[in-house]
Amino acid sequence: MKFLTPGEKIFSICNYLFLALLAAATLYPFLYVVSASLSSSNAVLSGDVVLFPKELTLQAFRQVLTEQGIWLAYGNTVFYTVAATCIQMAFTIMGAYPLSKKRFMGRTPISFFIAFTMLFNAGMIPFYLTIKELGMLNSRWGLLIPFAVTTFLVILLRTNFQSVPEEMEEAAKVDGASDFQILTRIYLPVSKPALATISLFYAVGTWNSYFWAMVLIQDESKIPLQVLLRRLVVSMNPTEGMMATTDTTVLFSQETVIYATIVIAIIPVIVVYPFIQKYFTAGAMVGSVKG
């Protein structure tokens, strides 16, 4: 049994205290939003809600869930997230696999140009003008195709593919397997942790994104949930449908409705994450020791 020196004990105590404070600072805003969404408007407006709900009620959630605009935006977000993740993973795999092969001619210059985009880009206005010239303004494709690849994730997956033993590929070639069969039957199955991790990055990034959707989409029937949520949070002004109620004895504030909308927006990510956490834990550092 190892005994800690006084200095090590002090460091450990300070380290635990710092991490505890950091965790509390990170979790408190989330807990407050949940508590405020479950509390009465009087409790929220008077500042009585600090950590736990006061005067528990689900009225704000009822009002949000009866608003058709929320469901439409929710459906758009689900579509964008699923479609974008599938497209992004397809392009990322197709880019990472050939770049992981030493026999691939032009591997070095292509890798350089791909990495170059991590340091330099044309900027927002040229990017917007490019999408406009491609005819993707106010189109769902404008939120899918221009964001099909993240350079860092291509490099991460390429490094993971390089860690697969070459003997497995050579044995498959002896059996007459093509490159496509080698990719689908060897590389992808053994790279599940990395693929799950990258898919999580793509999915969460798409789910939470709002800026380019706000810039590129003018049609209200195509906006994702995050754009609607951003409008609610910035203007603090829910739609008339959210604030309408047939029960005049029930009072609720704009803040409680907005907090309820925020909670509904983050539920899917919280629900899905535990199911892929094991892959995320295993894949977070995959390929990090081999260049």
UniProtKB/TrEMBL annotation:
<keyword id="KW-1003">Cell membrane</keyword>
<feature type="transmembrane region" description="Helical">
    <location>
        <begin position="194"/>
        <end position="217"/>
    </location>
</feature>
<feature type="transmembrane region" description="Helical">
    <location>
        <begin position="141"/>
        <end position="159"/>
    </location>
</feature>
<comment type="similarity">
    <text>Belongs to the binding-protein-dependent transport system permease family.</text>
</comment>
<feature type="transmembrane region" description="Helical">
    <location>
        <begin position="70"/>
        <end position="97"/>
    </location>
</feature>
<dbReference type="Pfam" id="PF00528">
    <property type="entry name" value="BPD_transp_1"/>
</dbReference>
<dbReference type="InterPro" id="IPR035906">
    <property type="entry name" value="MetI-like_sf"/>
</dbReference>
<keyword id="KW-1133">Transmembrane helix</keyword>
<keyword id="KW-0472">Membrane</keyword>
<keyword id="KW-0812">Transmembrane</keyword>
<dbReference type="InterPro" id="IPR000515">
    <property type="entry name" value="MetI-like"/>
</dbReference>
<keyword id="KW-0813">Transport</keyword>
<protein>
    <submittedName>
        <fullName>Aldouronate transport system permease protein</fullName>
    </submittedName>
</protein>
<feature type="transmembrane region" description="Helical">
    <location>
        <begin position="109"/>
        <end position="129"/>
    </location>
</feature>
<feature type="domain" description="ABC transmembrane type-1">
    <location>
        <begin position="74"/>
        <end position="276"/>
    </location>
</feature>
<feature type="transmembrane region" description="Helical">
    <location>
        <begin position="257"/>
        <end position="276"/>
    </location>
</feature>
